Amino acid sequence: MLITYLIIGIVPMLYFSYNTTKTLQGYFEDKNEKEVLYQANKIAGNIQKAGYLYDIEKREQFWKDLDERSVEENCRIVVVDKDGYVVADTNGLVNGRLFLVPEIMVALAGRDEANLRKDEKAIYASAYIEDQSSNKIGAVLVVSSFADVYNLTDEISQKWVITTLLIIIIVIFLVIFMSQIIFGPLKNILNTIKKISAGQLHQRIELKGKNEFTELGDAVNNMTKRLEEVDKSRQEFVSNVSHELKTPLSSIKVLSESLILQENVPEEVYKEFLQDISSEIDRMTNIVNDLLALVKNDPNQSKLKITEIDINKMLRDIIKRLSPLAKEKGIELDFDAAKDVKIKGDEVKLSLAISNLIDNGIKYTPEGGSVSVKVDSDSKSCFISVKDTGVGISKEEQSRVFERFYRVDKTRDRETGGTGLGLAITHSVIMLHNGSIKIESEENEGATFNVKLPIEREV
Ligand code: ADP
Question: Residue 130: which of 107, 98, 160, 152 has the closest Cα?
Fold first, then answer.
């Protein structure tokens, strides 16, 4: 940024400064050359008219006039004869000597000329002197200082340079100031992100005002909040798993210790206790199996085995498997398929998901109730509903039953043998299929689970 600003600001300044001094110098060079040449011509004309070069009497006076003029005009005047010998020099340096500077030679050859001598910072202008028959009888050289102009242009350039320097300083300060404004908040965000990635998930970015940076900060804050939630739910999950496994483990421990500590235990008691131990082991196995099923449904690891599924056939198979359970409880289990529906999905996983719903319907419906399964579809989706006449789920609980290990009434479920993982598994399978699941229920008035699955898999 600094370099860009400097180039944009300074290059034109330097170019402009260079150009102004050059133009000024050019202008004055032209003007002064003309003026000095005019003077040389005038003096040459005077000498010519009055014949000063030959008239000794008048000459003295004329030389005096020349001296005065040279002081007045601040210039040096040199007059030479036709061979280049100096007749008069207002500086008195080269009197009587041969003085053949290029301008004089040109003038003696019959041409007037003015030149700027940059090294001497002076203008040399010469004019020839003729007699009546146009013979060149001498020349006048006027040397006028050009230093004033150089001083002036130097002064102007100096001012340009000072202005440029001032601009550079201002630009540097501006850039530092701007970068503070731009990079300050970015640095702040970056520092917080570093802390977050080092594990400090409670860190948040301070949001001041409303601009792109605060939006970025807000996005990072939301992401961190989500990370914190995931972290919290992971910890909760581990503690839930441990807790769930601890209960059967302590039962087994108590049962087996009481057998060890008692002497002469009758065989029936042994059998009974071992039966209890075995069912606790079954419960642990269930939990572990459900956990494995859940882990397999993790969207990051799970690969669906997609095939075409005949939904009615799949549901009939499930119902066939579960009807002994329903019969045992005296529950009517019926199935109503409005249409033939085929969808693309993972049959094993979907079958498990719907089994859990029907299984729950049977589990949470008292004897004499009913569980009915219905299928319908439109051009895009397949709808499966599982409706029971059981205990129902209150509104507050409806949002929580899909959580892992969540159970409405813990004591009740110990009896039903649930792990609290069934609906979590169902939910994750349906999410993997880009579907949705909704509950319609009132407490004690039965529950309906409505599942919607896309017929084609969107990629
Ligand atoms: P569980 O293995 O305990 O059945 P789920 O995840 O399948 O675990 O269900 C979570 C909780 O939701 C259950 O403990 C139960 O309280 C409630 N629930 C699930 N299905 C039904 C239903 N059809 N009727 C009433 N309550 C239900």
Answer: 107
Q: What's 380's DSSP letter?
A: S
What is the homologous superfamily of the domain 307-454 according to CATH?
Histidine kinase-like ATPase, C-terminal domain (3.30.565.10)
- In tens, the pLDDT along 5-39 reads 778 878 888 888 889 889 999 999 999 999 999 99
Q: Candidates 284, 286, 393: which one to mutate for ligand 1, based on the most atoms within 8 Å of Cβ?
A: 393
Q: How far is the CA of 396 from the centre of ligand 1 (A)?
A: 14
CA of 327 relative to ligand 1 center, distance in Å: 20
Q: Which of 285, 401, 443 to mutate to test the pocket of ligand 1 (most atoms within 8 A of CB)?
A: 401
SS (H, E, C) 63-122: HHHHHHHHHHHCEEEEEEECCCEEEEECCCCCCCCECCCHHHHHHHCCCCEEEEECCCCE
Distance 403 CA to ligand 1 centre (A): 11
Q: CB-based contacts of 255: which residues, under 8 Å, 6+ apart?
A: 273, 276, 277, 280
Cα(314)–Cα(351) distance, integer angstroms: 7
Task: Kindly indicate whether the domain formed by 227-296 is annotated with CATH number 1.10.287.130.
Answer: yes
Pick the CATH number of 2-152 from 3.40.50.150, 3.10.180.10, 3.40.50.720, 3.30.450.20: 3.30.450.20
Query: How far is Cα 447 from Cα 424, in angstroms, rounded to an integer?
Result: 17
Q: How far is the CA of 128 from the centre of ligand 1 (A)?
A: 125
Residue 57 three-state SS: helix
**Which pLDDT tens digit goes with each residue over 311-334?**
999 999 999 999 999 999 999 999
Total-model pTM: 0.57
| Alpha-carbon separation of residue 331 from 77, 131, 414, 450 (angstroms) | 136, 148, 21, 20
